[in-house]
């Protein structure tokens, strides 16, 4: 029982805070509860398909293929593939992290994983199309042309300033997630 309480203490603290908020200000508490339930509902709609696709990726794509196309010696091909996969992805950013963990298990180069996460968060195709329609093509293209080198630069800076031990520990943790 203690182990369960320790594991879910963050959730329990937030739940108690929500109950206290509701007791103090009923309208605000019910609004906060509604927003929380809506967020949980959205996550329950997104997470199962992501995990199904991850399972298929894990089984269908051999490690050697991932290493060849996105591993240490992949060069420009790995960068472009990381951008394409990240830009074509659907869903919120928290969906990218399980994919990144599978990429780590498959031996994808760390900088390519960072590029993938950066592309997922900034260069999604639907977002680009929305910006073209709403903010104009000049803005959308300018933002994209600034973001792409920025993502690559940030990925390479992060991969250089992180110690080899930290990166290896992340890869090891990803392998142990089975």
TrEMBL record:
The keyword Cytoplasm does not apply. The chain crosses the membrane at residues 35-57, 78-104, 141-159. Keywords: Cell membrane, Membrane, Transmembrane, Transmembrane helix. It is a multi-pass membrane protein. It is found in: Cell membrane. Pfam families: ArsP_1. InterPro entries: DUF318. GO terms for cellular component: plasma membrane. Belongs to the UPF0718 family. This is Predicted permease. It comes from Anaerobium acetethylicum.
């Amino acid at each position: 029982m203690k182990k369960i309480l320790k594991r879910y203490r963050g959730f329990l603290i937030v739940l108690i805070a929500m109950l206290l908020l509701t007791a103090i200000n009923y309208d605000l508490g019910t609004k906060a509860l509604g927003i929380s339930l809506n967020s949980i509902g959205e996550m329950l709609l997104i997470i199962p398909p992501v995990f199904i696709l991850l399972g298929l990726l894990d089984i269908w794509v051999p490690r050697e293929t991932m290493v060849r196309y996105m591993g240490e010696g992949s060069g420009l091909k790995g960068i472009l593939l990381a951008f394409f996969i990240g830009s074509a992805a659907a869903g919120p950013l928290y969906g990218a992290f399980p994919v990144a963990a599978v990429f780590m298990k498959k031996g994808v180069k760390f900088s390519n994983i960072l590029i993938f996460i950066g592309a997922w968060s900034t260069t999604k195709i639907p977002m680009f199309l929305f910006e073209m329609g709403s903010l104009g093509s000049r803005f959308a293209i300018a933002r994209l042309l600034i973001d792409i080198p920025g993502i690559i630069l940030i990925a390479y800076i992060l991969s250089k300033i992180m110690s080899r031990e930290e990166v290896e520990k992340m890869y090891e943790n990803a392998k142990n997630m089975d």
